[in-house]
Amino acid sequence: xxxxxxxxxxxxxxxxxAKDATALLKADHKLVAALFADYEATNSNSKKKQLVxxxxxxxxxxxxxxxxxxxxxxxxxxxxxxxxxxxxxxxATLKDLISQIKDVEPDGDLFDAKVKVLSExxxxxxxxxxxxxxxxxxxxxxxxxxxxxxxxxxxxxLASKYA
Length: 163
Fold this sequence. Notes:
This protein is mainly α. Helix content is 75%, strand content 0%. The protein is elongated, with a radius of gyration of 16 Å. The longest helix is centred in the middle third of the chain and has 34 residues, at 45-78. It has 5 helices and no strands. The chain has one domain (18-161). The relative contact order is 0.18. α2 (45-78) runs antiparallel to α3. The model is unreliable at 1-17 (pLDDT under 50).
């Protein structure tokens, strides 16, 4: 009989053995989407500040792991000259938005607008990754379990840097 476990809402507690690279990244996407939803649902500035800090941390770690490990492997396996460069450019825009809200006091409409734009941009980026890049990566000879293990290990290393 197979045992199933409910996924935890913390991207850093996953089992490297059980997650291929795309599953690990999808778990990150789901976590960040939930954080953005929580942000939208609150009116508390202290809660907003806490959520933005976590969103920035999760996105920063996620982007770095993708850029260091996942994207180079996918680009090589697919001989890609379009998807990965586009995703990398999108990351640069995400990082710019993160720098505008990270460690900043939520001060009203402009701050909320920046978080909203970041959320929409992340949603667009996720749609492209999950709809195009991930399916193509799965059709290569990439060892996605090994790649996932490398990425999970790197995420743990980075978690302390972004603490």
